[in-house]
Design a protein that fits this description.
CATH superfamily of the largest domain: P-loop containing nucleotide triphosphate hydrolases
Oligomer: single chain
Low-confidence stretches: none
Mean pLDDT: 89
Shape: elongated
CATH class of the largest domain: Alpha Beta
Bound molecules: zinc ion
Strand content: 5-15%
Radius of gyration: 24 Å
Length: 378
């Protein structure tokens, strides 16, 4: 991955490159950033730059043997570690059976969330972790001579999923580093790491992307239409992993269409439409349901912002604006808080694995009562 492919974080990238050029590479580094901020993207760009044969000040060359191998996710001196579950019939719990899936995920891009990874592994309710066996395997790999005679890089995604016994094994590796080896940890929850690990790494804070930066990335890197990109970046608050999930999950029926049909059935208390809606909602799957509820919250929020004439705060596509011009009449100061609460509760129910149909029917009835609530005059 080239630095040019990382969304935002130009100054941080320059700092990382400078550390390589000046030969001040810490052998254990911790990239800390929330989902979708790009910590994994930066770690990958850093790894490629370390092993590039002809790096410039601005980036890896993109043409040497090492860069080509990185682009295909086949670099022999780049090792990966990530949370997984023990495959059935597997004697040792190592990541080996999942490395292919990981490679596919990384070829699609580094803006990966835990839910995306769970989906890919088909491990919906299984507990993912990094095992002691895996730590021993990493130890063995890092002890080998570098294939290309340069740096060996090991990237560990989500070290916070390690249990203490595993973390202690890695700690030993960090205390006795093998020559020309760099360990890059990429975490979303530095607070959940052992303090002894935190104290032995160089910490690199990767801030969240501003929605404008994320939107620009969506347009330039993924070819998303500018209006859609602005809306996705705003709803996801700059979290690119979430924005990309939303872009993917919304392909069958546009969210706006689903939302407006749903609001009509709630207003009318149309039982049949609600049941159909609940089935359609359930078919979205947990991730799609959360995305849709996020979107609903966004529209409800935007309809009240419009009331106060704060037009510059309204971030909507033209179709959404046309819809809200009519819909916002039903949203007022007496029901907006309760509507938001209802949507947020539904969101946490879905996240907690409550049946989607039940959540949807219950929510629809609440929304019906709230939409029918007249605004008090004062
Ligand atoms: Zn290169």
């Amino acid at each position: 991955m080239l630095y040019a492919e990382v969304v935002g974080h130009e100054a941080l990238g320059a700092k990382l490159r400078e550390s390589v050029r000046s030969g001040r590479v810490a052998h254990a580094q911790l990239f800390e950033g929330q989902e979708g901020a790009g910590a994994l993207a930066l770690a990958r760009a850093h790894a490629q730059y370390l092993t590039c044969e002809q790096p410039t000040e601005a980036d890896s060359c993109g043409r040497c043997t090492s860069c080509k191998a990185h682009a295909k996710m086949q670099h022999p001196d780049l090792h990966w570690c990530f949370p997984f579950f023990k495959a059935d019939g597997q004697e040792k719990a190592t990541s080996e059976p999942h490395q292919g899936t990981w490679r596919e995920a990384m070829l699609e891009g580094p803006y990966l969330g835990v839910e995306d990874w769970l989906d890919r592994l088909g491990a919906d309710r299984k507990q993912l972790f990094i095992s002691v066996d895996e730590a021993l395997e990493v130890n063995r790999k890092l002890g080998l001579k570098a294939f290309h005679g340069g740096w060996k890089v090991w990237i560990c995604w989500l070290p916070e999923t390690m249990r203490v016994d595993t973390a202690n094994k890695f700690l030993k590796l960090m205390e006795e580093p093998t020559d020309r080896t760099v360990m890059l940890f990429v975490t979303q929850h530095p607070d959940r790491l052992l303090a002894t690990i935190r104290s032995r790494v160089q910490r690199i804070h990767v801030p969240n992307l501003r929605p404008e930066e994320a939107a620009q990335g969506l347009v330039q890197r993924w070819g998303v239409d500018a209006d859609m990109a602005a809306s996705l970046a705003h709803v996801s608050d700059g979290n690119l992993a979430q924005a990309l999930r939303m872009a993917k999950a919304g392909q069958d029926q546009p969210d706006l269409e689903r939302f407006s049909a749903w609001m009509r059935s709630c207003w009318a208390r149309d039982g049949r439409a609600m049941v159909e809606g609940s089935e359609s909602f359930a078919s979205l799957g947990r991730e799609g349901q959360k995305r849709f509820l996020h979107y609903a919250l966004h529209l409800v929020r935007q309809s009240i912002v419009g009331h106060y004439g704060a037009k510059e705060l309204v971030r909507l596509t033209p179709a959404e604006s046309a819809f809200l011009a009519k819909f916002s009449k039903f949203i007022h100061h007496d029901n907006v808080m309760a509507l938001r609460e209802a949507l947020e509760e539904a969101h946490s129910d879905v996240a907690g694995n409550v049946n989607g149909k039940l959540v949807f029917v219950d929510l629809s009835l609440r929304v019906h009562r709230l939409l029918r609530l007249p605004a008090s005059v004062d």
